[in-house]
Amino acid sequence: MAPPSLLLRYSQRRLSRSTRGGLFFVPTTLALLTSLLILFYLFTTSNIFFLHYRHRHRQPQPTLPVEKPGLRSSVAGRPVPVAPDRAAGSSPGGKSPGPAGPAVAGGSGGRGVNAGRSGSGDRLEPSGDHVNNHDVYHNRDVFEKDYREMNRSFKIYVYPHRRDDPFANVLLPVGFEPGGNYASESYFKKSLMKSHFVTKDPTEADLFFMPFSIARLRHDPRVGVAGIQDYVRDYVVNITRRYPYWNRTGGADHFYVACHSIGRSAMDKASEVKMNAIQVVCSSSYFLPGYITHKDASLPQVWPRQGDPPNIMSSKRNKLAFFAGGINSPVREKLVKVWRNDSEIFAHYGRLTTPYSDELLGSKFCLHVKGFEVNTARIADSLYYGCVPVIIANHYDLPFADILNWKSFSVVVATLDIPLLKRILKGVSNDKFSMFRSNVMKVRKHFQWHPSPVDYDAFCMVMYELWLRRSTVRVPLTASFGSN
């Protein structure tokens, strides 16, 4: 039998060797796992590994039915319910901007925010892609039925403010036609106050609107960017003290509207708004904190334009793709770096030497590229000028995604795939591009504001999104509880 000292020395030597091997094995394993995770992420989010187009292997798409023209109904008064495809898209002058209304065939589906995400008429390939992906709406039946119910019964209580209020410029609708990049915020308030959705009886309200304007607070010298958070916090404190409505739900049946990106950070000192209330914002990124998908809603950023552009259908679109804008993000910087000297993709930064509208009318695809935020007005610009939008903005909760099938009228490209952009766009067949163009003309009315609401315009679509998000649990108000 070996002496104890020899056994101890032998066991220590074996332990030392195994420890050194373990120390080598652990980091090697971690590095291998990290590499595999990175490759898996690239595989699932990018076309770099397998850039092929499944439409080459799909069954032929069924022919779109011819839609019959019809009358539009006004939202300003109680409308007679009409089928969406016969309803609207009509401009104030009575001219239809294109084929009108939903064109989705499908089953009745369920209710709620995800209702109609895939209609029962859609078939799935083994890969999970929709074969019948030519319709602009997820489900015609659900949208049509729910829209009528929303139009009939939906009620909003707007917190009242006097015209002599010191912040009347922030709280009341503007007395002029809004313009610029953040006009959607002001247009919504003007349209709401002209609509039949507003009620003065809080006991019948589905939602409560806090009418402060983030854009106007930003430019008010008494508040400014630095004071917005304090203003919002004080506003919420005031309505909780003066009215009982916030306190009964913790603000879950309240909402505000903001198009400027600062609207999201404006809630940093009012966390109950961020967590409970519905935020209707243009900067709808589900990757960043402050925006909660399905609780909050994406507001389309629209630069208002009146009437239809000339030659929208007959214009020759010689450019493959077009982008112009400031280089205010790594994504735009990469786009311009890769494609600035290309003969088919026009990627420009700085001031254009040609009219912006001519470039949109002369391009097949128009690029919406993430800047400081995921949102810009370029999607609405593309649709207005009949150009197929290409969205290069990861984590963008696209406007009206609960209703619209974006795959039917737009191309979504991961920012990682910017070097493959031309290959992706050239891979779109003539038939598929014709389908895109046809559907662009159908959905463009949803991205337009009007001096007074028109069925299925941007205002009505936002109202429908709010209707989907109304609480299913109602706390009844007694007459005394609802009084001021």
How are the strands of the largest sheet arranged? 1-2-3-4-5
Query: Average pLDDT value?
Result: 79
State the separation between the terminal residues, measured CA to CA.
96 Å
Work out the radius of gyration: 27 Å
Low-confidence sequence ranges: 48-131, 479-484
- What is the ordering of alpha helices and beta strands? HHHEHHEHHHEHHEEEHEHEHEEHHHH
Q: Percent of residues in beta strands? A: 5-15%
Biggest sheet layout? 5 strands, parallel
The beta-strand count equals: 10
The computed structural class is alpha/beta
Number of contiguous helices = 17
Fraction of helical residues: 25-40%
Instruction: Give the overall shape.
Output: globular
Structure, described:
By secondary structure, this protein is α/β, with parallel strands linked by helices. It contains 17 helices and ten strands. The chain is globular, with a radius of gyration of 27 Å. The protein starts with a helix and ends with a helix. Mean pLDDT is 79; it is low at 48-131 and 479-484.
